[in-house]
Amino acid sequence: MTTQEDITRYANILQMDSDFVAPFVSGSQNTSIPIQESFPEVETITSNSTKCGGNFSVDEDNLLVSAWLNIGMDAVQGTDQRAERFWEKIWQYFGENNTYGTTRSISSLQSRWGNINRETSRFAGFMAKIEARNASGGTDEDKLKEAKELYKTSPAPSTGKKSAFAFEHCWVVLKNQPKWSTPKERSKGLLHTPSSIDQVGSNDDDTVVVERPIGRKAEKAKRKRIDGDKGFQDFLMKKLQFIEESREQEKEALRIKADRVQVDAQRADIEKERLHLETIREAKRDDMKKDRLRLETIREEGKIMAMDTSGMNDRERLYFENLKDQILARQQLE
Predict the structure, then answer these.
(1) What is the pLDDT of residue 226?
(2) Which of 114, 220, 232, 238 qualifies as a cystine partner to 39, CB 3.0-4.6 A?
(3) How far is CA 228 from CA 220, 222, 232, 241, 258, in A?
(4) Pair (24, 146) in one structural domain
(5) Which Pfam families match (predicted)?
């Protein structure tokens, strides 16, 4: 439920230009260094691809907002940053990420941020009013449309002129930051108990509370814890990788062993086949040897059978006649 205090706080936003940057650029938590008391008129915004003269493009505005958030909200850098060093870092960040072919000085970035800061803060006040009117109904799109119309029909405090809201592209990025958040968003717990450095503005009774980034020690402890978790995760990953590699090596060893068994079996089959063939060849050699002996025997026996015994004496004739009888008897048996 939006209270009168919420409306009062956002009314004070309209008076806060560069004061919001004080927590991030002060030399200590108890000393504020104002950046600029007043800012030039809102510059005309060119399209994303077209930049005329010294005007900032939408892309440049978004880059400047990104630089301010990254440098101002860096907990490791801390909020104890002096203005000069703070804007040097923003200028450096802007230059390193600027791909739009423009060159901006520190004073140009400060001036442009002053416009963005003032007008988006002013728009935040109108959004707070719309939230108060439509606390129980209306879509976010309807509320945004009403706030833009209210902005357009309300004269600017610094000039008294009326104009359309030219920094909606910046508002989209900044609206979730504490200074620009609506009471509805604050009720979700976006803001915390204020400390001395969180209080922005000159009115002690109506103070806008700005969310302070996490402390440097806490951030470092958080990152150390994250790094420790990451180290443990890396250890687990390496352990799992080692286990997987061991499993693969074991599988490979088993495969090699199986291949070796298969090769040994093949070698045994080959040796068995070789021995079988050798046996066959040996048998053939024996058969051939037998055939040669048989042929030799046949030739010798043929000579004996053809031998003329008429000129022999009785003993010789009887011997050869017996041989012939034996040859004939063996042939009959075969």
Answers:
(1) 80
(2) 114
(3) 12, 10, 6, 19, 44
(4) yes
(5) NAM-associated
Task: Output the CA–CA distances (angstroms, integers) from residue 141 to 58, 173, 244, 266, in the order listed.
Answer: 21, 16, 54, 81
- Rounded to the nearest 10°, the torsion over CA 92, 93, 94, 98 is 110
Quick one: 200 and 326 in the same domain? no
What sign for the dihedral angle of Cα 268, 269, 272, 278?
negative
Tokens of 218: 């806490």
Which of 213, 246, 262 is the last residue before a domain boundary?
A: 213
Domain count along the chain: 2
- What is the extent of the structural domain holding 46? 4-213
Percent of the chain scored above 70 by pLDDT?
A: 70
| Average pLDDT over all residues of the chain | 76
- Kindly tell me if the per-residue pLDDT of 14 is higher than 80: no
Query: CB pairs under 8 A, 24+ apart, for 44-48?
Result: 44/166, 45/166, 45/167, 45/169
Tokens of 107: 């004073």
